Amino acid sequence: MGKLKHIFKIGIFLIFLFGAFPVFAQEYSFGLKAGLGYTVNEKAAEVVGSAGSFSADSKIGFLGGAFLEVGFGKFFVRPEVFYSHAEGEFAFPNLPSVYSVDKISIPLLFGYNIYGPVAIYAGPAYQNFLQADLENTAVPIQELQRNIATQLGVKVVLNRWEIDLRFDFTFDSKRNQFVDIGNIMQEAYFDDGRLNQFMLSIGYRIFDTSKPRWARSGRGGCYF
Asked: For residue 97, what are the domain limits?
């Protein structure tokens, strides 16, 4: 019941956010995005125990979601919501284990068109961890806390398509937990399990006021 209430609150917030900006905007667009993520985990996800200290090696994950972009001249505001699956692999002795995280991210990005179709952006991101799993652990990973991240990147818009490259950095919550990893480490500690990522995605603007699909002569434009 608690999770349902939380998801309901997020939905209400997004409806308000996605509906309020266009009233004051010069241009706005709505679209879908999908892509890949590559984890970068120098001491981000780390297990420390009797067999030593281990950081998660990089692996490829995936993401998908939606965005709204509201333009004010060269500046824009871009709220998004997307699901991502990230992985990192721990090279434990004779027992490599994949650590995976599923989460919902809600970034609020502020950007600037620096030249033509090229824009840069940055902003905070609220993250709700749905599931975290570390293979070969006798003690399961506890439910992670909701967390705050920051995202920054660059995007290129080509008509209705866009290519987006960003870095997603999750702040450390200073939260460690006990784990039991088979016969390798019966007493080890796992930090809060951040998986920072480079994300490369392709988006398509389903609705864009700057790109009308057709316009009737003498009757104004029709956008969609």
From this structure: 2-222
CATH label of the domain that carries residue 139:
2.40.160.20
Nearest to residue 119, comparing CAs of 169, 65, 80, 73? 73
Q: What is the mean pLDDT of residues 147-171?
A: 93
**Strand 60-72 versus strand 52-55 pairing type:** unpaired
Q: 70 with 25: CB under 8 angstroms?
A: yes
Number of domains in the chain: 1
Q: Alpha-carbon distance 198 to 56, whole Å?
A: 15
How many whole angstroms separate alpha carbon 160 and alpha carbon 149?
A: 28
- In this structure, what token pair is assigned to residue 224? 């969609």
Which of 101, 65, 78, 75 lies closest to 202, judged by CA? 65
pLDDT higher than threshold 70 for residue 132: yes
Closest CA to 162 of 135, 201, 189: 201
The more confidently predicted of residues 201 and 89 is 201
Q: Are 80 and 18 in contact (CB under 8 A)?
A: no
Q: 3-state class of 85 per DSSP? A: strand
Residue 10, helix vs strand vs coil: helix
Write phi, then psi, for 29 (nearest 5 degrees): -145, 155
